[in-house]
Structures are given as C-alpha cells and as structure tokens.
Write a structure and sequence with these properties.
This protein has helices at residues 2-11, 14-20, 67-75, 79-88, 95-110, 115-123, 129-134, 145-151, 156-161, 214-217, 229-237, 253-260, 277-291, 307-312, 317-325; strands spanning 26-27, 32-35, 47-50, 55-58, 64-65, 138-140, 176-181, 189-194, 201-203, 222-226, 243-245, 265-268, 295-298. The chain is an alpha+beta fold. The protein folds into three domains: 2-88, Zinc finger, CHC2-typedomain (DNA Primase, Chain A, Alpha-Beta Complex), CATH 3.90.580; 95-203, DNA primase, catalytic core, N-terminal domain (DNA primase DNAg catalytic core, N-terminal domain); 214-325, Dna Topoisomerase Vi A Subunit, Chain: A, domain 2 (3-Layer(aba) Sandwich). A hairpin with a 5-residue loop joins strand 4 (55-58) and strand 5. Bound molecules: zinc ion.
Length: 329
Amino acid sequence: MGEDVEKLKQHRSLLEYLREQNWTGRPAGRFEIVGLCPLHDETQPSFYVNSRKDVFYCHGCGHGGDLIRFVQLSRHLSFRESLAYLSSRTPPDTGSAVVLEQAADFYQQQLDQYPEALAYLRQRGVHDPALIRELRIGYAPGGKLRRHLTAQGYSFALLQRLGLIDARGADALYHRIVFPLEPSRPIVNLYGRSLGSAFAHRFLPGSKGGLYAWKKVQHYPEVILVEGLFDYAVLRQAGFPNVTCSLGTHLNSDQFRQLCHGQRTVYLAFDCDPNQSGQQAAQKLACRLSAHGIAARRVLLPEGHDPDSFFVAGGDAQRFHSLLETAQP
Ligand SMILES: [Zn+2]
C-alpha cells in the first residue's frame, strides 16, 4: 500500500492535480503558492501549497495534508477510494507543452546573464536583439532548471518523462544555447547547441516536429531550406524572410510533406563540407522533391562553408542572392 502511494505521488504532484482542476495561485515565498481554498468558500486566499513538500494547508478551514488527503476532502472519498480514483486517472498529456513553455521562458531569461552565451551567439553571427527575442533563443547554464520547475510544482517524474532532467536528476541541457521548436506555441521540443564541440547537438526525446517556422514561409513561391538553426538565424538577419530549417539533412515525413504541398521552388542551402555529405543529402532530396513535382535547386556555397559560416566570414545578402541565382537544378 505504501509503495502504491509513493508511486501515485511520483506520478503527479499536488500542484499538478490542482492545476488540472483549474486552481490558480500566486507565489508566496520560495516554495509556496497561495490561492483561494477549493475546500471552503472564501474571498481572500488562505490556501497554501508547499511545492517542495508537496502538501497544502488552509488557514481558513484548517485542513491540510498531501494529494490523497486533498482528494479525500474535496471528493468526499475514503483513503482507499481516493487512491483508486487517482490511479484511474492518468495525468493529461497536454501538460507537456506547458512545461516546455516554462522551460523555454526560463532559458530565455538566463541568456543575458551569461556573457559566454552572448559571446557564442556573436561568434556564430547572431546579434539582432529583435530576432533573438522573436526566436526565443535562450541559454541553459545547467543545474538550475530542475529547481526552478519543481518550485513551481512540476513533479520530478514529469520532468524526467519530458527528458528535461536525466535519471540522476541533473538538467539535460547544460552549457547550451537553446532554441524552442518552435518559437510559436505549442512547443514540441527544445534544441540545445553546446558552447563546446563535444556532443554539439542535442534534442529532447520525441519528435522534432515539422519544418521550423513553416507557417511563416509556406506561402512563398520560393523557399530556402537550411539544415541548422544558426543558418536559419543568420539568413533571417540578412533580410531573407523565406527561410525554413529541417534540423539536419534528413527530413522526417511531416517535413517532406510540408515541402511537397503546393507549388514552389526549394533552394537547398546545406553545408558544403569537404566530405560532401551535405551536398549528397541535398542531391538526394532534390531528386525526391522533383519526383513529387517540386522544383529544387542546390545552392553551392564556397567549399567548407554553411550559410552561417558564409555570413560570419563576411558574406552578405547580395552575395548570397547571387548564389541563389546560380543554384544548380
Ligand atoms: Zn479552506
């Protein structure tokens, strides 16, 4: 019985349960949230939830306890009935988008506080504050997200399920620039680019979603497709509004379908690395697109460059325009 209780509580915190019931509160101290008591009528909030201990106490009616106690009192059930009630209801999955949203907000707030993060962005050629805000670019310093989210009542189990923290409880994204996928709601994933070179790219488990910011570009007759988010950012910054990103050279079926829907020309601006892997991927993709009636052209960047490094090395919009004009069918 004790084991069952622990399992239940790990699965969902009291605050998560209260939020599912549309309870709202405001922070009142580091681990406390106060709101109107769901157990008695009141106009002044006196219902406190301690997110760390996962318990509540109401100064109005004097009731207090854990999640199971709350269910007993609010639904007039016995202890055993409350356990059965809670285990029959699995937490709704819509919660994940909300948590990713909170994580993205947190990372965004961190960015300005870490000079190394801003220096890295500059080094990659991303400097326009309006664009950084629009894309909601953030920074994961590591070791801070878990504390921030558990203080808001999100359970350890939920954060682990989403991959935001690992099995040992450490933040999964550490010393990484973070891009939410995508900047508009709902966020389906986060991409973290390491400031170092080891394990450069990292996503949370699960789908990367469709093409990045596709809604913004789907009506353009010509679309530039890049493989990385820094490529995306520098092209946007250089004044190209019709860019999208596949987050790698391999398109998932959603992404491929998006490109094939409608009439357009796709400019593939993949890496021109010495081992040719980017260009080979571009060639294959161009063939697949042509087979679906979509005109595809390969942008030939100078050897060893991707769009990001092209601009960092002094390339400008005009020179990129000429590359588009000479792109290979
Ligand atoms: Zn009360």
